[in-house]
Amino acid sequence: EASVYQNGLRYEHPPFTFHSNQWEPEAAKAMSATSAGYAIGNAGSGETARKNVEAFKRWSIVPKRLIKSEDLPDLTTHVLGHEFQFPIAAGPVGVLRIFNPDGELAVARACAENNVPYVMSTASSTNIEEAAEANGKGVRWFQLYWPKNEAEEVTISMLDRAKKAGFTALVVTLDTYILGWRPSDLDNGYNPFLRSDQIGTAIGMSDPVFRRRFKEQHGCEVEDDMSAAVSEWARTIFPGTNHGWDDIKFLQEHWDGPIILKGIQTVADAKKAVEVGVQGIVVSNHGGRQVDGGVSSLAMLPRIVDAVGNKLDVLFDSGIRCGADIAKAMALGARMCLIGRPYVYGLVLGGQAGVSHVFKALLGDLELNLHLSGILSADPKHLNRDVLVKESD
Ligand code: FNR
């Protein structure tokens, strides 16, 4: 089977550069000010977002020599009891149609094409059923922005739809019950969730239970007053939350499949995730878009892995920008890395082909990096803390 690296070399016309550090500046030039502010922007001063990226530089890979390795490394990983060809997934990102008219459909197709799981956001600008169709035989997980308890019938409806549409795992995001203080969006007066023209709420607008409730409350159909409907949808979920750890059992009762809690940053919360019996967590700080001055996500990863890594699957995101970053997160114990902004930039620069290019470039880079470091596979028996040294605190 041809390797990701060799496929990269065979590209006659890569849709844009292989330099992953150029994707953000190139995409910034190609986007509207509001989209760029939303995608690139962070909470507050951007301290946490910067720390996310810088944290990777504190750890270095120490290459080994004279390791017999005629084959390129096997990138296979195991998550939720399944084998995956690659240790990455497309993390949940909302309103993808603001970046390309095909939005979620382009991403869902690129994921299926590259054997990369697709995590669909509740804040998507495409409905669940159409994105699922575009993803076809791909592996897809549904990310939940969890409606408040008084709207539990809406939650149940979304979970039912996701299940029927072939989403196999539920990713519950815990760090976003209100959007963070984001100066770029504030300057631009931009909140994609409240823009009925950009429908960051397609899932809500197409939800039969939400639509029935809206009609009862407002005496008209969603289409008759889109701006009221969009506001009502936002109110169903934000601001604030009335969920505590006790409420996870509600999701377990209504979701027939594995549950992953996204946004875990403390060891104590990781232990609670084990106690409530979920199957996985994503160590994530939402790319530094929620809490400013917060710890880098990578700093917490090894501590959390030490506490719970043998009891549930630990996934990771926030700050992954190149193959070496994936190698380091995996070496520190993550079983899979969610890619966020890089694939959004790919979507901006090249639609479905652009997203594919980002996945292939990251994986090709990872594959060669492991190979040249004498690391035979992405399995923890080869890719673990022994391959890293911490250069500074
Ligand atoms: C996000 N993220 C996110 N997470 C989530 O659970 N639901 C969502 O709808 C979104 N939407 C979203 C939009 C945009 C534009 C970005 C950049 C991010 C967070 C995402 O899943 C992931 O945690 C971060 O993107 C990881 O940080 P980096 O690596 O992209 O900086």
UniProtKB/TrEMBL annotation:
InterPro entries listed in its UniProt record: Aldolase_TIM, Alpha-hydoxy_acid_DH_FMN, FMN-dep_DH, FMN_HAD, FMN_hydac_DH_AS, LMO_FMN
Keywords tagged on the record: Flavoprotein, FMN, Oxidoreductase
UniProt KW Heme keyword: no
GO molecular function: FMN binding; oxidoreductase activity
Cofactor(s) required, per the database record: FMN
Positions annotated to bind glyoxylate: 38, 145, 182, 286, 289
SUPFAM superfamilies: FMN-linked oxidoreductases (SSF51395)
Residue ranges constituting the FMN hydroxy acid dehydrogenase domain according to the UniProt record: 12-391
Membership in a protein family: Belongs to the FMN-dependent alpha-hydroxy acid dehydrogenase family.
PANTHER family, sorted: FMN-DEPENDENT ALPHA-HYDROXY ACID DEHYDROGENASE PB1A11.03, S -2-HYDROXY-ACID OXIDASE-RELATED
Protein name: FMN hydroxy acid dehydrogenase domain-containing protein
Organism: Periconia digitata
